[in-house]
Amino acid sequence: MKIYLVCGKTDLRKGIDGLAALVTDMFGLDAYNNAIFLFCGSRSDRFKALYWDKTGFVLYYKRIENGRFQ
Fold it and tell me: CA of 25: how far to CAs of 17, 22, 30, 67, in Å?
């Protein structure tokens, strides 16, 4: 499995379709591949992860309560 970290700020209001389109259009990658795509927002305390589990997309949203990512 590959893990891709999308650098820069991503609009975390996007859902599954928007993030999958971003992976395909901006980076030329297959969103249906065996990979996890991590997206950071403008705030450094939250991120989204997108993963295709062979039956559908899984969208994971995480907000850090105490602290931030560097």
Answer: 12, 5, 10, 32
